[in-house]
Amino acid sequence: MTTVTTAHKNAVGTAHTRVEGRDKVTGAARYAGEVPFADLAHGWLVLSTVARGRIREIDTAPVLGLPGVLAVLDHRNAPRVETDYAGLMGSKPDPTCAVFQHDRVPHLGWPVALVVAETSEQAREAAEALVVHYEQEPHDVDFTGEHPDAYALDGHMPAVAEKGDLDAELAASAVVLDAEYTTPEEHHNPMEPHAATARWEDGRLEVVDSNQGATWVVGELASLFSLDPASVRVRSEHVGGGFGSKGVRAHQVAAVMAATVLQRPVRVVLTRRQMFSLAGYRSPTVQRVRLGADAEGRLRALEHRSVSLTSTVHEFVEPSAGVARVMYDADAHHTANRVVRLDVPTPTWMRAPGEAPGSFALEAALDELAEKCGIDPIELRLRNEPDKGPVSGLPFAGRDLPACFREGARRFGWADRDPRPGLRRDGRWLLGTGTAAASFHAGAMPSTATVTAHPDGTFTVRIAAADIGTGARTALTLIAADALRVPPERVRVRIGDSDFGPAMIAGGSMGTRSWAWAVTAAADELRDRLALGTGVPAEGITVRSDTTAAIGALAPAERHSFGAQFAEVAVDVTTGEVRVRRMLGIFAAGRIVNPLTARGQFEGGMVWGISMALHEEAIRDRATGGHVGADLAGYHVATHADVPDIEADWIEDADPRDPVGIKGIGEIGIVGAAAAIANAVWHATGVRHRSLPIRPDRVILAGGPSA
Ligand code: MOS
């Protein structure tokens, strides 16, 4: 008989290496593009080479005669799909994933055909040989921010929130700041490219895929192909990064179409270059921030207007102006997110959507205001700590930003800082330090889980969670172990299979919290059942949970994680180099489940912040409408040599409204990080850089204090 009263210490809160770590480093862990299938065929997407127009002709015949080629799917022969449905978050799907339905080309890199062959090499060769004729039309890919056609667009928040008389409060302010900030187009670039294999088996569609949520992909594929969701199975055991880009995209849909037409398994993998057109990206932003404060630095007026872009086929908004709705109050408080439609691919969620670019503008503006007021930037923020949600009016479900700043300032050595810019030198380098606040929404979404007790005293947890590299599988193992009151070694966690029942995606920093809630609920009930002492039969005892009701009963509140970012930089204004010398992030982000992987998650976000501040920028060529250098040679991301001594830590912040105390840590690491670096660059040089990335040419042109 199973005993469940084994003495154990809490697993949650102790550092635990990844339970699948050995499989990953030995290559035993299979990713979507390498799971073996008998009789597998390979599809290769052909993307448009014009930015706008119409497909006039596709010369299929010569390609069908090439070695190994099995089929060419395009808008003339591909199966029809349904796009008139409400997908994730209740909105219609991005029709970019509904491939080959018409002859229109709305951007460069639009999927126009799939070539299927016996081998991947044959498919690629044939795809590259396929000649497509277009009727080309003039295109516009030029994003300039404010534009006569820009319009307010709701995303996961209302586009506009306004209270108070902005002009009156600005006029009455002792100090006013009015500045424009820009951020470029940025791409997720997960290590593992998008990949999917689709096959029909016993009347069921099975897709082995790399995604952030099997439930999500099942829902979209079932809707697109008018299938009963129960007849679709999506598996995604290991995922090499997602960052918002791994939902349903052209390659899964194309693979399902080809598998349907050919009645054999078909795999479609995106190349790194194709990902720049098909995986989504973060829109560039132009943001105007106006702040008005009294002589003590208390905000009377706050205005944050952001313009981002979307495609002509789908509406997506980067809600950068949303940050201020949580962070700071003012008598007049106006925020608005607007978009311009251009002949470009549809942008999407990218790690800290809204918060990442929005916090750059807002937290840089706060730094400028602090300078104008002659107040320390941390003190300025502390003076503007709101006691309730500035726009929502809701109570905060925990807001320990001041404690993050206090602890961060102590450890970073902020008290010794001379606020004057352009004074510190180390040889050719000018040195400076900067800080910024961070926040990210904390929430949970309904999920289901099962926990099975086996006669040998071990347990199996099943939940359609996705471990996109965060360590979610390991976190859930620790959580289940504590809930079952057994050591983690007795718990097996199986994830990434839609047959385990509906569950939240790995997204919105809500994955682990949502899944942990469901796992805990099932484990608690199972422990009660086992306590009855009736023994465990050979087939085990399985308990299923569903957290829909519990999460629905949560009282309304402004739920966020918070943090304080610190950076020290060295700037050579002659060569234009900016080197980050050290970073510190202190977070109040709920109970930390696994300090080892949590630290990696925070630090990974902070590295993104370095990358965002100094490196990342996708450039669009106005003439062709496509990217210049759509690869990891042309698109710079921070590498080891760019990343200095980074430290991330946290303060006690367990959320009493969550069964495990979790808030969520997936995205907050990047928030404020770029602003802290930009603020440090000002402190080093005396020059404000309001456009990211802070490239060498920008640094040289802006100059600095004379030697
Ligand atoms: Mo994240 S951008 O919610 O995957």
From TrEMBL:
The keyword Oxidoreductase applies. One of its GO terms (molecular function) is oxidoreductase activity. Residues 26-138 form the Aldehyde oxidase/xanthine dehydrogenase a/b hammerhead domain. Keywords: Molybdenum, Oxidoreductase. Transmembrane segments: none annotated. This is Oxidoreductase.
